[in-house]
Amino acid sequence: MKTQFSRRRNFVIGRSWMGPLSLSLIGIAMLFFIVRVFAPGVIAFVATPLWSVGTTLSASAYTAGSFFGNPAALTKERDQLLSENAALRTEQLGLYAQVQDLTKLIGTRTEPGEGILAQVVVRPPVSPYDTFVLDQGSDVGVQPEMRVFGPGGVPLGTVESVTGSSARVLLYSAPGRETESWVGEERLALSLIGKGSGAFTATAAREAGVKEGDFVYTAGPSFAPIGVVVSVQNDPSLPRAGVGIRPYFNPFSTPWVTIEP
């Protein structure tokens, strides 16, 4: 009898907590029923934010999983971006160099300048020495015998022949070409003889006083020198002194020129 009483007592104690729990469940069920019948929109209103948060979290988890789950695609995209960045950098450097070249040629003026701007598309050694091929021709008004100038208005040569879209320029320094000029502060007349590769030779009276460092100019509107005296050979056995002249500006280094009548 003592054993049965103990078992009954334990059973009652074990089931004692079920009363309040049952009442709570019944209360929640009744509350849900009342709200569902008399205010059905309340449940949807309360649950909608929770559903939205759940949907957002699911989408974020999917995106994150896709982002970190394909390293090969990420590596490919990174390499593509690096390649595009390098290409843009190269283009930027090219444009900067072009601006610098044009600034040297025409300065920083904003008003329209005289002459026709042309790009050198063929130069030695692709073309014969002391000749250029330009990308402008008769379509824009280029004609034979027009003068060609480099940066700062340095005289380079004249147009020898033209097509509709191009022009061939013969430099003053072409071998054997004669160009009338003057030298020094006394403006001593000289006849320059092209020596090739931009250089010239000339002769002057020994008593004329031509010296190394004197600038040589050609006739025309430009005030820029065509060359600089680098040597004067005074041979007593010769009536005239030999004068060596280097170009004031390396004509083969300019990418742009201007063409004027």
Give a description of the structure:
The chain is an alpha+beta fold and about 260 residues long. It has 2 domains: about 15-70, no CATH class; about 115-260, Rod shape-determining protein MreC, domain 1 (Thrombin, subunit H). It has helices at about 1-15, 20-40, 40-70, 70-105; strands spanning about 115-120, 130-135, 145-150, 155-160, 165-170, 180-185, 190-195, 200-205, 215-220, 225-235, 240-245, 255-260. The strands form 2 sheets. It has a 6-stranded antiparallel beta barrel. It has a 6-stranded antiparallel barrel with strand order 6-7-8-11-10-9. A hairpin with a 5-residue loop joins strand 3 and strand 4. Helix 2 (about 20-40) crosses helix 3 (about 40-70). The longest helix has about 35 residues, at about 70-105.
What descriptive keywords fit this protein?
single chain; 2 domains; 28% strand; 6-stranded antiparallel beta barrel; alpha+beta; Thrombin, subunit H; 261 residues
Strands across the major sheet, in which order? 1-2-5-4-3-12
CATH architecture of the largest domain: Beta Barrel
Q: How many whole angstroms does the radius of gyration measure?
A: 46 Å
Number of helices: 4
Number of strands: 12
Return the average pLDDT rounded to an integer.
78
CATH superfamily of the largest domain: Rod shape-determining protein MreC, domain 1
Largest sheet composition: 6 strands, antiparallel, barrel
Structural class assignment: alpha+beta
| Distance separating the two termini | 136 Å
Topology as H/E string?
A: HHHHEEEEEEEEEEEE
CATH class of the largest domain: Mainly Beta
Q: How many domains comprise the coordinates?
A: 2
Strand content: 25-35%
CATH topology of the largest domain: Thrombin, subunit H
- Which stretches of 5+ consecutive residues score pLDDT under 50? 1-6, 8-14
Assign an overall shape: rod-shaped
Give the proportion of residues in helices. 25-40%
